[in-house]
Design goal:
alpha+beta, Cytochrome p450, 5-stranded mixed sheet, 3-stranded antiparallel sheet, 19 helices, binds protoporphyrin IX containing FE
Length: about 425
Amino acid sequence: MSEDAISLFDIDTLKNPYPAYRTLRDTQPVYFEEALNIHVVTRYDLVREGIRDTETYSSRYDQFLAGSQMVVFQQASPEVQQQLMAIADQMVETPPTMLTLDEPDHTKYRSLVNQLFTVSRIKSAEVAVQAIIDECIATMSPGPVEFMSVVGFPIPLRIIGDRLGIPLDRREFFDKAATQAASALRLTPLTGEALLDRTQTAVDLQRFLIDLVDARRANPEDDMITILANSKLEDEDRLLTHGECISVLNQFLVAGHETTSSAFGWGMLLLCQNPQLQDELRGDAKLIKTFVEEVLRLEAPVQGLPRLVTKDTVLGDYSLKAGDMIMLRYGAANRDERQFEAPDELDIHRKKAGAQLAFGAGVHFCIGAPLARQELNLGFASLLNAGRNFRLGETDSAPEAEASFILRNLPRLDIVYDAI
Ligand code: HEM
């Protein structure tokens, strides 16, 4: 691939960015992507530098995300725009918390939310997580299966729904709303009707979450929303406002399920493409652990996230100015041969597979990583115990990633397998 030809926004490149990443790492490890007016960082050491130096590279990129949504908004007709504004007027304002904040404000929310993901909490939820996995896998039977609709999407969605404490009779609404919230990150054009539906659902979701927060304040239960609703910010000795609660919960909804679904899908595809691994992995929790890290390394569900440059600086030998946006491309860093030997290969014996950056690193390291790892480790162990000879189904088209710039997903995956 020639240097000049590269645009990460090209449809084929969105579906398979890895050849472009390789060229970029070698020739322009920081590269200006005109389509988004952003400088994309692809080399492992530089991505790490961008993550670590939080003074120079700020997480206050909420304006950038809002700007991207504005592009989608502007593509709608004037009538639809008017209706959208009327719906959006009902939105509760949500301040940034965690993902798009810097220290020290970031720390005050992060330390409150940390208690939801302690080792002991994750451990004690194991039985419940396993039960959901078993139920979903029980809906499959040997033969042809569309893996994403029976396992890949439902497992993480049901687990986050349970952990948050979403009442069972509102699950259908919750599933739709959470899926739509994540779809906003795709930055893809929508019909006016779909855009209106998504915006109305976002308003309904806010209302629903506020009611739930109030209900858990009045009658606490054993779930995440209860803890969030009733914990105080340490320094300010106060409960979170409704807006703050929604902001945190939105991050769980967006970050918390499509990412894990994505890893289920890519993991299953990699098992089908490397059939010799299936017997070796079956029953070996330690190898499955490395396998999961390799899946995350090879197919990072979050391919990249932005940072705002706060002062004139140099990254590698590339000059950046205060106000520039950069994008840390975790998906490219994870295949950097300067960091990982034979980076395009799945190696279930790889030493330091955990050095992959799919969960980011540093102060913003994914707070849900222990939960995601638990789901994936238990999930693949159970899948391998439920069947053998997982292989691709005979359909007209090969499995294809969705053309998305931030999330990397397989919308469908047709497989076939045999009874154990
Ligand atoms: C395989 C699954 C997942 C992947 C690949 C993933 C990826 C990431 C990445 C790359 C970041 C770092 C953001 C940055 O650099 O600015 C992050 C942060 C975050 N993730 Fe995840 N995530 C996953 C699962 C989850 C789950 C299950 C939850 C919650 C239920 C979650 C909640 C969050 C939150 C709240 C943050 C913000 C943390 C902060 O800024 O301090 N994620 N995630």
